[in-house]
Amino acid sequence: MSRFGPNILITGTPGTGKSTLSQELASNTQLRMVNVGEVAKENQLFLGFDEKLQCPILDEDRLIDELEEQMAEGGNIVDYHSCDFFPERWFDIVFVLRTDNSILYERLQRRSYNEEKIKNNIECEIFQTILDEARESYKSDIVHELQSNTPENMENNVDEIVAWCKQWVPQST
Prior knowledge:
Blueprint: E1 7-12, H1 18-28, E2 32-35, H2 36-42, E3 46-50, E4 55-58, H3 60-73, E5 76-79, E6 93-98, H4 101-110, H5 115-126, H6 129-137, E7 143-147, H7 151-167
Parallel strand pairs: 1-5, 1-6, 2-5, 6-7
Antiparallel strand pairs: 3-4
Helix pairs in contact: 1-7, 4-5
């Protein structure tokens, strides 16, 4: 069975522009945006709440079960800040957004993140945690690092990914 469209993962530290990029891509392609946080919220796919970071704890296994059929069909842009738990077979390409720390700090402050959460996310970006996760979880030729500091970066990233989508050829599974 071949999929009707590619599956793309947009990942990176919170505040790098994943949701904005995913929304732009969805409006410029025939692909569906899958905001993992929203899917988890709608279906109550949580194990509990992290008081220190002030965020819910995702039930990754239940999320995978929830998305399996949709991902098998293809044509999805998955937006999430982590990537190592998704099945490798799901994605044709993975984009890791990176943002300079000073810009990222300001974005996280505007979101009213507490200092602990800001510090945690800035360290994640400094140590390229998400990029390393992606490189360890997927074939190296499908993992791409994209700068996401300016509106021009965003436009270039949209153009690059849309061009890639136009060249995508379905693979039989």
